[in-house]
Structures are given as C-alpha cells and as structure tokens.
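Model it.
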Amino acid sequence: MIYYFSGAYEQKLKRELNIDQLFSYYHEQNLVKKTIEYKKEHPDKTFRIMLDSGAFTHFQNSKKKGIILTDKDIQDYTDGYIQFLNEYGSDLECFVGVDSVPDPENVDPTFAEKTFNNYVYMYEKLKPEIRHKLIPVFHFGEDFKWLKNFLEWHNFDGKPIEYIGLAISLEGTQKVRISWAQECERIIKESSNPNVKTHAFGVGVKSVLDYINVTSTDATSWVKRAAYGMISIHDKTIYVSDIQKDKLNGNHYTERNLAFQEEVERIIKERGFTLEELMTDPYSRAKFNILDTLDWVNNMQEHEVVHKTSLW
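Modeled.
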C-alpha cells in the first residue's frame, strides 16, 4: 500500500526521508512545481507525488466568506486545474478529479452525477498520455449506483478506469466507516473492473486500514500529532510533551504506570531518538511519527476482508 503524507508541512524532512506526498491544487500549486523541480535535480529521490483537486477546500473557504459558488465558478476552477495538469501531470503519479462533495448527513443526490460528468469532461480535456492518472471520487452517503457507473465506464479506447477514490466519511463510528469501505470493495469485486486501484482519502490509521484493502491512502495525522505533543508507536498515540498535559486526565506519558514508561523509552531508544528531544522538539516528533507509519505500513500483509451483512 502507498501512504501519501499530506500537506506542505516539513518539506525538508519529507524530502530527506524520500516519502510519498499528496498536495492540494487549491493552495499548493507553487509547492508542487518546486517539488517536481527538486525531484528532477535529485534523481536519487524516488518519492511519488499525488495531487488533489482541492475542490472541497475551495467550497469550504468560499462558504466561510459567504460566497455561493456557481456552476460557472466551478467550471472556471476545473478548467484552470486541467491547464495545470496538462503542463505538470506527466511528473505526477496520479491526480484527483474536481468533485462535488456532499454533506454526509444530508446528501444532495445531484452531486454524484455532477462528479461523474465532471470526470468525463476532464478526461476528454486532458492530454491523452496522462488521462489514465485521473481519479474520480465516490463519496460516503452517495447511491452505490454511481460507484457502479464508474466501474463500468470505458474510455475512447474501450479501457476501464484505472484508479477510483473512496471518500470514506469522518462522520459516524469507525465501524460504520469500515463497513462502508468493505461494501465498496464487494461491489468492485463483482464488477467488470475488479482490479481497479483504489485510494482511501484521509484514512491514515492502522485501526481502519487493517480491515480494508486499498492501493493507497493519505493522512496528516503524523504532523498533527507532532504539533500537539504526541508521538505514535504502532499507530497508538503517546503524549510526551507538556503542551496539553493539564488536559489529559492522567494520560500523559509520565503519568502512566512504570512498565508502560519503560516500554516507551525502550522503543524510543531503539529508533535512535531520545525522550528529551521528543518531549521538546516538534520536528523530531514529526520524524518519529513518519518512521512509525512507514514501519507498520511496510509490514502490513494482505488480509482476507470479511464483509458484514450488518453494521453491527
């Protein structure tokens, strides 16, 4: 599985560790260009670059400003994105189509159709040599017929879609999210395109990925944990900084039992860090968290997915 580390954070560290990265077209266009140039100047760097359309961020930021996006606004945004992809797409591993993101608690049934139509529009406008990299998105809460439509769609050469994005909602319980993703997998396996690659958006935790099979995922958890004084060990959160100590109700590292503290210290030392630097330095925590993620991702084995007939 490919794990894309999201965002503009800690570029020096991410380049040093040669890790796969996901950026947003909405506010990271210049960084994408710089990263592509950096790779060309450093042929030893093999990390992959994935680009998200930033459609959700565009919508959210416009909403905060009291702006209601019109169809023309979305069309103009899409056309600008297509132009960018036609110039830089050959240096990207893959990129996400402009989608209409529904409210999971009140899904607008027209959004899925708009997303589907926009995928076809973008596909037609992209340069032929990069079209296969375009990823359409199917969202939690949408009618599964739209996932089936993506799976059965064929391009001008009669070839099916190579990569589909699954927007697993952050709403609801973990069990609900896993069950939805497993239902997507069942539908994919029963389609005429059973080997399509899949990307799970924002699902960067082992507790979910242990139960689903996807080609790739992305997350910002590594840097968020670091910023709030946490490190991760086997994707379990450990509070080591004093940043939030007064809010933790006894869950800070120093307030746990002695056996727990000794085990944490052993693993920290084993990974080449000191407790002091992780307690005081967010950069070190970010590095520790990246290495922890790479460790469990690289050791994940293909597993048999048990599809449930009920969410409970």
